[in-house]
Amino acid sequence: MNAKLDVNAETHDARKYRTLFLSDIHLGTRGCQADLLLDFLKYNESDELFLVGDIIDGWRLKQSWHWPQAHNDVVQKLLRKVRKGTRVVFVPGNHDEFARDFLGMEFGGVEVIDHAIHETADGRKMLVIHGDQFDIVVNHARWLAHLGDWAYDFAIWTNRWFNLARRRMGLPYWSFSQWAKLKVKKAVNFIGDFEATLAAEARKRGVDGVVCGHIHHAAIRDIDGVAYVNTGDFVESCTAIAEHFDGRFELIHWRLLETERAAPAVVVLPLPPPLPEPPLSEKAAARG
Q1: What sign does the dihedral 158-186-29-265 (CA atoms) show?
Q2: DSSP 247-271
Q3: Quick one: which of 214, 268, 217 has its CA closest to 243?
Q4: For the chain, how far is it from start to end, CA to CA, in angstroms?
Q5: Cα angle: 237, vertex 243, 248; to 5 degrees
Q6: Among 231, 230, 271, residue whose Cα is nearest residue 40
Q7: What angle do the packed helices 185-204 and 176-183 form, to 10 degrees?
Q8: Residue 86, class by beta-carbon neighbours within 10 Å (0-12 exposed, 13-18 middle, 19+ buried)?
Q9: Which of 24, 40, 44, 278 is the most exposed place for a label (fewest CB within 10 A)?
């Protein structure tokens, strides 16, 4: 993307939400869509902004330093939002696990916490957590996680050249890694297991749902009465989750048109309302 974006431009025509959730931005990698993210941040405002892990890719930066100006502009844009009154909360993931040494601290007004319990406008409590804590590979086979990370980076590199040719032929973007996630049985099973595990953790903690990231697969689903919300990523999918002022959650896909003006492809999937309270007679029967 060669979009010309003004990081300091005012956002008078920005869409306003109660809360925005972003994860898996992977600043410090060549696959990071920093220009698209700057555009998203320019045209979308919120009272609160949760950064749900893997914002900075410490794994990749340890191997080779890649930090262009656009990546620095993202950081400055986030800090500017804090100065303008947005509450920004950073929940570290496995790729930026170095930040877990600073839990409870603030940097430029950005709060660093291990997890959060976010209460929606309609009163539901949502566990906000990156999700790597429940990934067996990350926790018990770190070398395999790094190997998978290398394979993913290779797929991104391959996609870049493959899609350059597709654009010249007038064809839309196509992602091999996203295709593989939905076609390879083990990958599909992993996604399903991850979603079920996170929903179970939310149920265990007595909350109504969970907002997470980690697996780069955006979703808003109901899993046995628990709201499962995944922010996806800003490497390939370029997705975010928005909470409206009535508590509805919305999945946003952010892309640039040829005019270099962002146009969101929006999927609005409201979470199911809480179950109604039983009549007093039923409550008394249940107690008795």
Answers
A1: positive
A2: S-EEEEEEEE-TTS-EEEEEEE-PP
A3: 268
A4: 65
A5: 110
A6: 231
A7: 80
A8: middle
A9: 278
With b for 16 or more beta-carbon neighbours within 10 A and e for fewer, the 16-43 pattern comes to ebbbbbbbbbbbbbebbbbbbbbbbbbb
What are the boundaries of each domain within the chain? Answer: 15-287
Rounded-to-integer distance, Cα 75 and Cα 194, Å: 30
Give the global pTM: 0.75
Please provide residue 56's backbone torsions phi and psi, each rounded to the nearest 5 degrees: -110, 135
**Cβ 211 vs Cβ 250: under 8 Å:** no
Q: How far apart are CA 53 and CA 23, in angstroms?
A: 5
Q: Are 215 and 23 in contact (CB under 8 A)?
A: no
Residue 57: enclosing H or E segment and its boundaries? none
Helix axes 34-43, 69-83, angle to 10 degrees: 20
Partner residues linked to 91 by β-bridges = none
pLDDT in tens, 72-124: 999 999 999 999 999 999 999 999 999 999 999 999 999 999 999 999 999 99
Looking at residue 147, its pLDDT comes to 43
Token duo for residue 287 = 């107690």
CA distance 129 to 211: 6
Burial of 101 (0-12, 13-18, 19+ CB in 10 A): exposed
Question: Rounded to an integer, what distance in angstroms lies between the CA atom of residue 72 and that of residue 185?
Answer: 39
Question: What kind of fold does domain 15-287 have according to CATH?
Answer: Purple Acid Phosphatase; chain A, domain 2 (3.60.21)
* Beta strands per DSSP E along the chain: 15-22, 44-51, 87-90, 106-107, 110-112, 116-119, 125-128, 209-212, 219-223, 226-230, 239-243, 249-256, 262-268
What average pLDDT score do residues 166-170 get?
A: 71
